[in-house]
Design goal:
The chain is α+β, with helices and mostly antiparallel strands and 620 residues long. The protein has 21 helices and 16 strands. A four-stranded antiparallel β-sheet has the order 2-3-1-4. Strands 6-14-5-15 form a four-stranded antiparallel β-sheet. Strands 7-12 form a two-stranded antiparallel sheet.
């Protein structure tokens, strides 16, 4: 069957060349559209449920929020693990799904269950889903710095929350923009318990009075002077004086008691659970860009940078946006390094083919199969959702050496057939259909064996596909791309290569003995071959001893699950005793950053104590 396919390809060589050009163009388009990242995403399919229960201790949060949520979410279809964590004022429930579950299907199932459990939660507990992101979604982080000193931490945080955050969330591929550090400004009512007792006013009555005073209502319309006028009662509190004038009750003498009589009203910072600091110079408000699951990290970072450049003109004078983490550098360095290695492999293969074939056109036949096989692999990668990272590109690098084997063997066999024909038809010129017949006979003679040998190599990575969980997600991109590239090479070996041989293997074909390197290698190899054939038992014993001798270093060589990467960014994560105040944490953070910044090799230091305003930050 393979021999018939080879002869059909030669007979319909125009269609084969046209199909190869179409596949090449399609592959280049898929190559340019394939998402780039440094490492494959090892995260489970997960949905995070965050519940805010302000002011409550972890034990209360556990009993009233986390426990009801975790027990109810156990019934979500496809969920394999449900984990709950309770912090001061916050509950986080992580629902992990089986591999292959669609993320948005999982989120919709979790929402359905949350609707059932909402009535069992406290009235002021607010539940929401975390962003549709993964564990590697933090792709970019920046800090807001005011060099002029005119803006305080509260104003910088307001600039982040009410300007930058909304603008950046509109960028394609961004799932969330999380704020960290700074001060959230709020109106604070500090009650005087002695005054409350003197007037006989309960704490709940003050809360009700403030809630009633901060309302707005509509009153339909009035028709006046042939026009409709909308009636609206505006009662929102806007200034401190508005708060002070809120009536609470009246005394026995009929005197109105207002909020200012029993409390001190002020503008102050909200209680913080996260602090940011830059270069040991003091607290800094920051933002974290969280990428949506499955998006192109490099493109998303580029669009975020472009948006920040556009927004800089709208910032107050003296305010700067300082990048503190940018994954695009790691991605570009990792991919550029691997791209360089691939080009070096291309060059080595080309040189080796030329040296041993001693014919430039014949070497070109072998080389042209490499890029075609690679772009064909990218077509499948694109539609399967496998992004380009060091593991998937590493699979292609592994396959390159084997991809060209079939072409080299087929070309060498064609040389021998052409050489034999020239000896049998001395003085005649091989042209036209006679030439294509000789090429077809040469390709058909070794084509089936080469095709099935490449298929065997292709199937050699099948055990990798049986890996599960994190190890499967780490190594499967390598196995996929290596398999796709080898399968493409096997297909090209019996279709395109015979056609290219007919067009390019022309001119004077050097004999095998005419190549001095071939003569040298044969002269070195033949004595060794004669020796092992003369003493076969000794050869087997030596091989067995070498195998046994390799077992000891194999057991002591060690290993790591993740490949070592020189990212250029270091994470220093100290732990403090529970109960550390925010003020002391900020002090220690600044001292630590200042010490690290003194190291000459350190360009910048950004520290974070506590957690950012996002469900993807598991810090306590």
């Amino acid at each position: 069957m393979i021999a018939r396919l080879i002869r059909w390809s030669i007979a319909n060589r125009f269609l084969v060349l046209l199909a190869s050009l179409m596949v090449s163009g399609w592959g280049v388009v898929c190559l340019l559209a394939t998402p780039l990242d440094a490492l494959p995403d090892l995260s489970d399919v997960q949905v995070i449920v965050r519940t805010s229960y302000p002011g409550q201790a972890p034990r209360i949060v556990e009993n009233q929020v986390t426990y009801p949520l975790t027990t109810t979410l156990l019934s979500v279809p496809g969920a394999k693990t449900v984990r709950g964590y309770s912090f001061f004022g916050d509950s986080f429930v992580y629902v992990l799904f089986e591999d292959g579950t669609d993320l948005y299907w999982a989120r919709s199932r979790v929402l359905e269950v949350l609707n059932q459990v909402q009535s069992r939660l406290p009235a002021n507990a607010k539940t929401s889903l975390g962003p549709d992101a993964t564990g590697v979604g933090w792709i970019y982080q920046y800090a807001l710095i005011d060099r002029s000193g005119r803006m305080d931490a509260g104003q910088l945080r307001a600039l982040q929350d009410w300007f930058l955050k909304f603008e950046l969330k509109a960028v394609a591929g961004v799932a969330e923009v999380a704020s960290v550090g700074g001060m959230v400004r709020q109106y604070q009512i500090v009650l005087d318990p002695h005054q409350l007792a003197a007037y006989g006013i309960a704490h709940t009555k003050v809360i009700e009075a403030v809630q009633r005073a901060n309302q707005e209502a509509g009153g339909s319309v009035l028709e006046l002077g042939e026009a409709e006028v909308m009636v609206r009662a505006s009662g929102y509190l806007q200034t401190l004086d508005d708060f002070r004038k809120i009536p609470l009750t009246t005394t026995a003498a009929g005197v109105s008691v207002r909020l200012r009589d029993v409390a001190r009203i002020q503008v102050g910072p909200e209680m913080r659970r996260g602090i940011g600091e830059l270069d040991g110079e003091g607290e800094a408000t920051g933002g974290i860009i969280v990428m949506r699951s499955g998006k192109n990290a490099l493109e998303t970072i580029a669009e975020v940078k472009a948006k920040l450049t556009e927004l800089r003109a709208s910032l107050p004078k003296g305010v700067e946006i300082v990048p503190v983490y940018d994954r695009s550098g790691l991605i570009e360095r990792a991919v550029a390094n691997l791209r360089t290695k691939l080009l070096e492999e291309f060059a080595v293969v080309a040189v080796v083919c030329f040296i041993f074939l001693f014919h430039l056109r014949s070497a070109f036949v072998a080389i042209v199969s490499l890029p075609l096989g690679i772009v064909a692999a990218f077509i499948v990668m694109r539609y399967q959702g496998v992004n380009a990272n060091i593991m998937s590109l590493g699979g292609i690098a592994i396959a390159i050496g084997a991809m060209v084997d079939a072409a080299v063997v087929m070309i060498e066999n064609a040389h021998k057939h052409l050489e034999r024909w020239a000896e049998q038809h001395e003085g005649e010129k091989l042209e036209g259909e006679a030439r294509w017949k000789v090429i077809g006979d040469a390709a058909s003679e070794v084509g089936p064996a080469l095709f099935f040998s490449l298929l065997i190599i292709t199937l050699s990575f099948i055990p990798v596909f049986t890996l599960q969980a994190q190890e499967g997600r780490l190594f499967s991109p390598l196995a996929f791309t290596k398999t796709y590239a080898m399968a493409a090479a096997a297909g090209l070996a019996v279709t395109l290569i015979p056609v290219l041989m007919g067009y390019l293997i022309r001119g004077r074909i050097p004999a095998e003995r005419a190549n001095p390197l071939n003569r040298l290698l044969i002269a070195l190899y033949r004595p060794a071959l004669d020796a092992v054939l003369r003493w076969p038992k000794s050869t087997l014993v030596i091989a067995a001893i070498a195998l046994l001798a390799s077992l000891w270093p194999l057991q002591h060589i060690g290993g790591e699950f993740m490949p070592r990467l020189d990212e250029g960014d270091l994470l220093y994560m100290p732990s403090a005793l529970p109960g550390l105040s925010a003020g002391k944490a900020a002090e220690l953070l600044q001292q630590t950053d200042r010490l690290i910044k003194t190291i000459p090799e350190v360009a910048s230091v950004y520290g974070k104590a506590g957690r950012a305003e996002t469900a993807t930050d598991p810090a306590p």
